[in-house]
Amino acid sequence: MFTGIIEHVGVLDSLALTGAGGRVTVHAPTLAGTLAVSKSVAVNGCCLTVTEIRGDKFSADLSAETVSKTSFGAKGGELKKGTRVNLEQPLTAGKEFGGHFVLGHVDDIGRVIALQEESLGSNSWRLGVEVPLQFARYIVPKGSITVDGIALTVANWDGRVVEVAVIPFTYEHTNLRDRVVGDAVNLEGDVLGKYIERYLEAREKNNSQNPRP
């Protein structure tokens, strides 16, 4: 499990995709030395298993599901060599929980439609992302959303576009400063909302099958 607090930014060294998945290698000099083969790491919010470490670089395999559901394989927005990526290690016992519950299980891909400075010289930004219809049910005003692994708060929601406020620190210490209109970003909804949704669906199904007399 992760928190969405990005502590490292790496650079994509290579991305090889096949019909059955792929393999990604990330240059991460501030992080690679603390990783271990078989352990987890989130890359742009996608939980991956480290399969190889060579110096300042680590590699991970991508399943076909990962390629189809994340920006690793997004048409028109594929990650390329030299792209900066957000990195986070799993939460450990006793560590401060500063964001929100992030599983690293990407739900869908959104598209950046705006990234604008709030006011000239403020260095605070407003990010707008168009989300797929099937993801929209997880958006709650002032609720949590994960964009490329970053824990953010929904500032505005109009039914298709979610807007989040980006503070200067987040802008400077994540890959958000590289985003442009049209870029694909990984989205993960609040897991608590998903459990509530599943519970209500099961209760409704049970009530329909066992109506009260």
Walk me through what this model shows.
- The longest helix has 19 residues, at 191-209.
- The relative contact order is 0.18.
- The protein has helices spanning 64-69, 168-172, 191-209; strands spanning 8-18, 21-27, 40-43, 46-54, 57-63, 84-88, 108-117, 125-130, 144-147, 150-157, 161-166, 184-189.
- It starts with 7 loop residues before the first strand and ends with a helix.
- With 213 residues, it is mostly beta strands.
- The chain folds into 2 domains: 8-88, Elongation Factor Tu (Ef-tu), domain 3; 108-197, Elongation Factor Tu (Ef-tu), domain 3 (Beta Barrel), CATH 2.40.30.20.
- The strands form 2 sheets. It has a 6-stranded antiparallel beta barrel with strand order 1-2-5-4-3-6. A 6-stranded antiparallel β-barrel has the order 7-8-11-10-9-12.
